[in-house]
Amino acid sequence: MERHRSAALTLMLALTTVGAVAGAQTSATVAMAPVGAGAATIARTANDSTPRAAAKTTAAAADSAPNFFRDITANAFLSFGYTYNLNQPADQINVLRYFDDKANNFNIDVAELVLQKAVSKAGDAGFRVDLEAGSSIPGKEQSNGLNIGDGADLQQAFVSYIAPLGNGLRFDLGKFVTHMGYEVVEGYDGYNDNYSRSLLFNYAIPISHTGVKVGYTINSMVSVMGMVVNGWDQAVDLNASKSIGAQLALTPAPPVAIYVNYIGGPEGENDNHTVRHVVDFITTYKVSDVFMLGLNADYGTENGSSAVKTGDDAKWSGVAGYARIGPSTGLSLGLRAETFKDDGGTRMITGSKVSASELTVTPTYKFSNNFVVRAEGRFDHADSDIFTDDKGKTKKHQGTLGLNAIFVF
What we know:
Blueprint: H1 2-23, E1 29-32, E2 40-43, H2 52-64, H3 67-70, E3 73-85, E4 105-117, E5 125-133, E6 152-163, E7 169-177, H4 199-203, E8 208-217, E9 222-229, E10 243-253, E11 256-266, E12 275-288, E13 291-302, E14 314-325, E15 330-342, E16 354-366, E17 371-382, E18 387-388, E19 394-395, E20 397-408
Antiparallel strand pairs: 1-2, 3-4, 3-20, 4-5, 5-6, 6-7, 7-8, 8-9, 9-10, 10-11, 11-12, 12-13, 13-14, 14-15, 15-16, 16-17, 17-20, 18-19
């Protein structure tokens, strides 16, 4: 374990050193993400107070560096939070949660360092490495066969190339986050309108993949993606088969975006016959500059895997609705309502058929491009007694309150 931690520390120091060299250039830019919508790029210039002689030395060193290294950017993301469970469970577990499962506890959710050379046009070659540490997210998003410590993870590590074919055929090879789901794991280039993750994020879809991904933009309204990967969250495959993933992205009009995603393949250990399929549908509608709507629906099956009735297929499904009210700066409000059904008893790992729903309200204040604070109230309800209180008594509901601070660099 110490060897793993030492290796992670060495890598972080190396990434920070390279990022500092890139940041010393006056023209260097750093990609940063505002609250809500996708990523943006914000220019960051060198410190004007740098002594002239030192600036000349730094500039000379930068000018002598190969162009490849000049294009490398370094970014960081930090999330710190607290969750209080109104049931006050004796085991201090928030049921139906994945990352934020610890009740009444302060958490360094994640500290992320990203080093990358982005690609944007035909002929470009680049890479991306996301190294994370923390007490909530990294240890739970680890892929099978890739463990660099209990509280650390190599979330992404891939190389990219855009082949000069048509509008540009993009290849990504390595480990990358999944294309499925409305919500994201969260990082410097994207985070959610709610602090806690949805039931669909927790139980319906994977987190990451390792393999080959190919994407192509047909025109301004249509793009497609296909991939061959080890499977769900597997850096080292559990079996001899591969999983196939695909995405169709449509933008029929500027306010509307539609995504249809799929992944399928055997996911069991040493089992090449039990196939899991998931179809994921996402749509967003920007009503105005201060009002955004979103919808996410999932349906999954795994043949012969039901824990409720031996021999039956395991099935799960759910739908989540989202709304964000408010401007991109200052105060905004994120709303989420969803329901999820685990008919086969395999996704929530209860061994029985369970249906659950939740409602989440998340007021957010964006102080600057670098600092965001979110408060949250959430109510979960299930048709079975799966929650507990301070006396160990089972219940059908759970209420939580959360507070979260985000730093983006």
